[in-house]
Amino acid sequence: MGSDWENVVVDAEDPGRLARWWAEALRYQITYERPGEVEIRRKADETPGIVFVTVPEIKTVKNRLHIDLRPDNQEAEVERLVDMGARHVDVGQGSVDGWVVLADPEGNEFCVLAPRT
């Protein structure tokens, strides 16, 4: 017996705003929305989804779990995401080849990887 991966849940100050940001970033769609909870998925019937929920506290430390994105063009994707409101962050990665660490508008870190060779 096993489990299917349904969702990743992200704590947020403003779930609607953050869900819309990630939906645009990932080219996902909003599949469910009510006050304090918004879900996005690639397609309405496709898992896993990402659910954004309201929490009272602000983010204060580095994420213990993050998303890695792998675009066809890393440089162009980093530029697009920064133009959307992401920012470069240092989580102690030092000088690395192969990925760029960014944070979404609420400070959640994620990586943009180089294309597969």
UniProtKB/TrEMBL annotation:
Gene3D superfamilies: 2,3-Dihydroxybiphenyl 1,2-Dioxygenase, domain 1. One of its GO terms (molecular function) is lyase activity. InterPro entries: Glyas_Bleomycin-R_OHBP_Dase, Glyoxalase_6, VOC_core. It comes from the Bacteria. PROSITE patterns: VOC (PS51819). CDD domains: VOC. Residues 4-115 form the VOC domain. SUPFAM superfamilies: Glyoxalase/Bleomycin resistance protein/Dihydroxybiphenyl dioxygenase (SSF54593). Keywords: Lyase. It holds the Pfam family Glyoxalase_6. This is Enzyme related to lactoylglutathione lyase. It comes from Catenuloplanes indicus.
